[in-house]
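Quiz preparation item.
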């Protein structure tokens, strides 16, 4: 029986091996300095209500796929914001504001904006958030609840970013963006440094033992590059790194394939909205271009099914609350394991120890509840 007949739903849309792979810890930590990472970890770990998020064993999925270990970093438990994004934006707001009563601004697909708004609320400063027409009203409302002003912009994420830059210059607002561009790199680096605390936690949780493979979601690439920098900072053994993207937004994959940052227009939005980006951010690209082993892309087809399965304990002994962008690692891993050719090329076998990132919980409760009712 053919693969497609056996597993028609678990498909890798695109696969690329990075011909320019050359992992250099020193180079990575020159781009995202160790001192910046250490300061972020020290600062965030001192915040009120800070707790290490769970590292869950997906023992049922491990058994089904005949692998040695599968771990899932559950960021649905990150403060009350239910996303790893809570770490970066809020930390950057704190670093740049000092004791000044500034107004901060950003463009967002949802989770980053919540982090910036929360950071501003903690410091009692004003905040303006720009969202595109594709961002759900539930997400916009959750940002408003944190005291921020929300401005909706016609078009996609890039339109909201352009409007944010325009109005911020006009009103002298301080932009706290997780995307870098020419002469705008320090704040995105602060945000990435904030994300690195996840790796410090994993280093401790897994008793300093590394993994064979790490699957990383990518939108503009900030989280993926930050995790790579975190591994460079804390781990001696570096695992194989696989980037996972929606097949409607293959920004890292296309850039790796062409050996240069590629920009393109998103023709159709993915359900994985936080990853629906048409360009890799400049700072992450400096890390990703030579530190990633493989890139894969997946369709939206299995996203809702995986969200449902996580909640119903199909993959582990505990219920996992996962949003749309929490699913790519599981979808990609399972699809690769059902594709003998790609599985062999990546080197996944019975001895593999896999790390996945559940980067968000039900950050859009309305959508989540709708999925769970089906």
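Solution:
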């Amino acid at each position: 029986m053919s693969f497609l007949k056996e597993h028609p739903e678990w498909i890798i849309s695109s696969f690329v091996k990075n011909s320019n792979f050359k992992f250099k810890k020193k180079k990575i930590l020159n781009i995202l300095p160790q001192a910046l990472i250490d300061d972020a970890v020290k600062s965030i770990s001192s915040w009120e209500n800070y707790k290490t998020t769970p590292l869950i064993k997906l023992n049922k999925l491990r058994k089904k796929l005949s692998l040695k270990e599968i771990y899932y970093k559950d960021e649905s438990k990150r403060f009350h914001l239910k996303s790893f994004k809570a770490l970066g934006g809020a930390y950057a707001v704190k670093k740049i504001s000092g004791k000044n009563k500034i107004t901060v601004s950003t463009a967002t697909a949802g989770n980053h904006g919540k982090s910036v708004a929360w950071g501003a609320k903690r410091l009692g400063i004003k905040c303006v958030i720009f969202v595109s027409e594709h961002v759900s009203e539930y997400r916009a409302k959750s940002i408003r609840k944190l005291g921020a002003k929300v401005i909706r912009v016609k078009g996609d994420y890039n339109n909201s970013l352009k409007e944010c830059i325009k109005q911020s210059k006009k009103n002298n607002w301080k932009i706290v963006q997780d995307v870098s561009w020419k002469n705008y790199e320090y704040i995105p680096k602060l945000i990435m440094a904030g994300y690195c605390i996840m790796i410090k936690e994993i280093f401790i949780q897994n008793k300093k033992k590394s993994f064979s493979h790490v699957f990383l979601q990518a939108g503009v690439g900030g989280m993926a590059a930050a995790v790579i920098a975190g591994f460079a900072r804390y781990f001696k053994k570096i695992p194989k790194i696989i980037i996972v993207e929606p097949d409607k937004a293959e920004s890292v994959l296309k850039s790796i394939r062409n050996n240069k940052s590629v920009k393109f227009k998103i023709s159709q939005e993915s359900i994985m909205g936080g990853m629906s980006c048409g360009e890799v951010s400049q700072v992450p690209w400096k890390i990703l271009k030579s530190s990633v082993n493989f890139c894969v892309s997946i369709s939206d087809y299995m996203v809702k099914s995986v969200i449902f399965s996580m909640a119903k304990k199909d993959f582990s002994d505990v219920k996992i609350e996962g949003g749309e962008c929490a699913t790519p690692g599981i979808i990609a891993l399972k699809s690769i394991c059902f594709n003998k050719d790609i599985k062999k090329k990546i080197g996944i076998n019975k001895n593999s120890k896999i790390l996945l990132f559940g980067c968000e919980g039900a950050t859009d409760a309305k959508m989540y509840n709708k999925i769970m009712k089906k």
